[in-house]
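Q: Structure tokens for this one, please.
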Amino acid sequence: MWTHAPWRGRLLPHPLPAGERLRAYATWCNAVEGNTTFYATPSRSTVESWAGQTDPGFRFVVKLPKPITHERRLTGADDELRAFLDAIEPLGPRAHALWIQLPGSFGPADVGALAAFLGRLPRDHRYAVEVRHRAFFDDPRAVRLLERVLTGAGAEWVPFDTTVLFRSPPTSDGERDAWSKKPRVPLRTAALTDRPIVRYIGRDDPERTAEGWRHWVDAAAGWLREGRSPTVFVHTPDNADALTLARRFHDDVRAEVPGLEPLPEPMPSNGPLPDEPLTLF
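A: Here is the predicted structure, written as tokens:
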């Protein structure tokens, strides 16, 4: 996401060489969703570049490749998994969680495969699972089954909150596209571990997006008071203002938890690159 075209020259310096774009993004936000790894396992040298552009406290939530989660459905993918784990090793402590996003067809009958897969994973990583099958939201037995498996493995359940997106008909091309692609599932706000991860998508209108995240501000503030360390990703259908919205969300949480460290001033879109990545918390 750190190369999103609408940010170039408006929020991030442009042009920038590929090896400096993440460094610029990391002055705005202290975490990123690793979506590109879903489509292809990156080379180790690419991941080394990511590590070199970020402080050790920067958080990557990196998605497992599609062949593992969607094509093989967590079975018989040991070679692909080993290649992926080897590739991301240079991230070190920046690998906040490995993100197991499962297809909408992955339902309660498949939980055994998930349990077996989680049981084989190395313990030197943290894991977070995103499910989209309606039974995991509508059927209390399915909810309890999944929670038991995740809790037993020390894995988090990642909610993807699309309720604001689907609250009223779309009003932009981006919203219409999102309506056709994003899962329509009920809201879930419970955390299973000390590292909750939330994905929230609002609307292309920044004010409607901010109005819809109030319950996540309260949840994040509550988790922080409990000693947990939440990570919240803020999206809109076109993501044009996602960077400014993420910082606004952080400010809203900080208003409830004054001890939360502020984010640094973002790199000016026409300013020089720093010699070292800024430390973010």
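A few notes: The chain is about 35% helix and 10% strand. Strands lie at 31-34, 59-63, 95-101, 127-130, 156-157, 160-161, 197-201, 231-235.
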